[in-house]
Design a protein that fits this description.
The chain is mainly α. Helix content is 76%, strand content 0%. It folds into 2 domains: 92 residues, Rna Polymerase Sigma Factor, Chain: A (Orthogonal Bundle); 60 residues, Arc Repressor Mutant, subunit A (Orthogonal Bundle). Keywords: DNA-binding, Sigma factor, Transcription, Transcription regulation.
């Protein structure tokens, strides 16, 4: 990962290639349908590629990757409107960062509830669900510029609320 972060394209390709079987096993152990595993692996690899700059080389790499994979899996469940069962929540709760992530998620949801619904929906779609502007616009029946404006205004309203506290 460090060589990849330094711009070594061979190391980057090797890293992503080495992660494929690891992520497949991870999602299979979590009970993900075989049909969804490849999609989740791909989404996770894209996130590793796009968010590599958030990795702290002073910390272990595996927990960082597994956290990304876990959030991609949860997002996939939400997109399909599947509910996470109590057994799954128990398993997720055993993971180290779950309580911190849950607390953060509840904080985000509480803040989003305090801004206009249109802005909250746009911020949630773009920043949390990681949908593109085009996907969000098509899903919500709005123009791409309307989505961009709503995200901008929503983030501005959130920043204002958070900085006041």
């Amino acid at each position: 990962m460090q060589a990849s972060m330094a711009g070594d394209s061979r190391a980057h390709r090797a890293l992503l290639g080495a992660l494929i079987p690891v992520l497949r096993r991870y999602f299979a152990r979590k009970g993900v349908n075989d049909a969804d595993i490849d999609d989740l692996v791909q989404m996770t690899l894209i996130a590793v590629h796009e968010r590599g700059d958030t990795y702290d080389p002073g910390k272990p790499f595996a927990p960082w990757v597994y956290a990304i994979a876990r959030y991609k899996m949860i997002d996939q469940f939400r997109r399909r409107r599947n509910h996470i069962g109590l057994d799954d929540i128990g398993e997720l709760a055993e993971e180290r960062d779950f309580s911190e992530a849950l607390t953060a998620r509840l904080d985000v949801d509480a803040h989003l509830a305090r801004i206009p619904e249109k802005q909250a929906a746009a911020v949630r779609a773009i920043r949390i669900e990681q949908l593109s502007v085009a996907e969000t616009a098509a899903r919500d029946g709005l123009s791409p510029s309307d989505i961009k404006i709503s995200v901008h205004r929503g983030l501005k309203a959130l920043a204002k609320r958070v900085l006041r506290k």
